[in-house]
């Protein structure tokens, strides 16, 4: 193999490696950052919940995020280590 062939092979391998690790695993165009900048540990009555989302760690964010949308459409980020949310999730999952 000539020097030019080795350089072309190295450039191609470098490009493939960069492309593979530069984009999030969820696919192109879906990159987003963590949704929660701050979290709350204050209990929220479940009757005020409209929706609860549990986002696992991934390419977008390295931590678990729990987002509660209340009936007034306010979104609150809950600390995943808050005891009350863990009890709530356990209770819901056991049903």
Automatic annotation (TrEMBL):
Domain of life: Eukaryota
SMART domains from the UniProt entry: SCY
Family annotation (SUPFAM superfamilies): Interleukin 8-like chemokines (SSF54117)
Signal peptide: 1-22
InterPro entries linked: Chemokine_b/g/d, Chemokine_CXC, Chemokine_IL8-like_dom, CXC_Chemokine_domain, Interleukin_8-like_sf
Major localization class: secreted
Compartment(s): Secreted
Any single biological process term in GO: defense response
Occurrences of domain Chemokine interleukin-8-like (ranges): 31-92
GO molecular function, one term: chemokine activity
GO cellular component, one term: extracellular space
Keywords assigned: Cytokine, Secreted, Signal
The protein's role, per its UniProt record: Ligand for cxcr3.2. Chemotactic for macrophages.
Entry similarity comment: Belongs to the intercrine alpha (chemokine CxC) family.
Protein name: Interleukin-8-like
Species lineage: Eukaryota, Metazoa, Chordata, Craniata, Vertebrata
